[in-house]
Amino acid sequence: MDIITNVTMKGEDYVLEITTHSAEATKEIGFKLGRLLKPGDIVCLEGNLGVGKTVFVQGIALGLDVEDYVTSPTFNIIHEYNGRIPMYHMDVYRLNSVGEMEDLGYDEYFYGKGVVVIEWAEKIQQIIPEERLWIKGETIGESTRRFVFKPSGERYKTLIEELKIR
Predict the structure, then answer these.
(1) DSSP-derived secondary structure for 40-56
(2) DSSP 3-state assignment of 156?
(3) Tens digit of each residue's pLDDT (9 = 90 or more) over 75-126
(4) How many CB atoms lie within 10 A of CB 160?
(5) What phi, psi does 55 have (nearest 5°)?
(6) Among 83, 68, 80, CA closest to 34
(7) Coil, strand or helix: which one is 117?
(8) Where are the alpha helices (DSSP H) in the chain?
(9) Helix axis angle, 154-165 relative to 23-36, nearest 10°?
(10) pLDDT for 57-89, tens place per residue?
């Protein structure tokens, strides 16, 4: 089996843990999530280099019907993609301060009509809206990854419920 799913309840909150055993499976989880996303959704990705954040985002893009090849926007910080919903892919790894996000007009993206996906989101956590989906990736083995989904807000709890059914 390539994908293992586990839901953990913590009080009224819960987290969804998904373990993948290949890059293709990681992309598949991203695809399933992308199919469920709506305008205004914010997906935050956290994890070390090589954990599969960009592969996950490529799956989200496929789920949003983005036809362009998705790469990490490390040097541009933001890439915009057109699909059934616009996707704003941010990679904030190279930012030195949250103030640099203000120069980019981040609020237009966060409160716009597209889906925002942020790699290295922990670097700008204080400016990301409270309601969001936070996903932490962990390397378990050579090709095994665990993704822990933590929803904040009713929209994202519903999203996790829908994702775990798929």
Answers:
(1) T-EEEEE--TTSSHHHH
(2) helix
(3) 778 889 999 999 999 988 887 778 778 777 788 889 889 999 999 999 989 9
(4) 19
(5) -60, -40
(6) 83
(7) strand
(8) 23-36, 53-63, 99-103, 106-110, 154-165
(9) 130
(10) 999 999 999 999 998 766 778 889 999 999 999
